[in-house]
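re: ur question from earlier - yeah i can do the single chain one, its not a big deal. heres the input i used so u can compare w yours
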Amino acid sequence: MFNTFINKVLRGIPVRLRLTGGFIIVLLLASIVSVTILGNFNTVVTRLEQFTNVDAKLERLLLITSRRVATSQFNLNRYIQDYVPSPYEAQDDADQAIANLNEGLALKIDSGTAADLTVIIQSLNDYKKQIDDLQAAQNAGDTSQATRLESKLQKLGNDISVRLELMVDSNVKRVTAANEA
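and the output i got, formated as tokens:
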């Protein structure tokens, strides 16, 4: 019944009009496919921009910060062993690590990553304060306080390094998952 209805309608339409209508239908289908392909391409481009502008830059900043924290720990050990007269280099490295993390906060990152960066920045600020306290204790000749602070600084520096490593690993896993999706 449906076929007979279509046959009657199509036979009543001139051939030129049927060809024009068929061509228009093909053009509509082609445009729908094109829009779909361009939409998917735009999604890929957006992901690539996200990766290059945010994720890769964040990973680079985290790695640089990790290196700065390790250098700060090294310079602090040099100060503790009396190889250098002040912990200035250790504090400078910590300041540069904080600056890198603040640059990372300025990126368009998710709230979880921002919270992790904020915790590390706070830890680095505590680290710097304890370095100041260590210097004051050593200048005052309070060896028991200095020894206690040295131990706390080693632990805090290691904790900061572990947090940074975990963030880098998390960032790599997130990028891998996003690329597979």
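The helical segments are 2-12, 15-80, 88-105, 111-140, 143-180. not sure if urs matches, ping me
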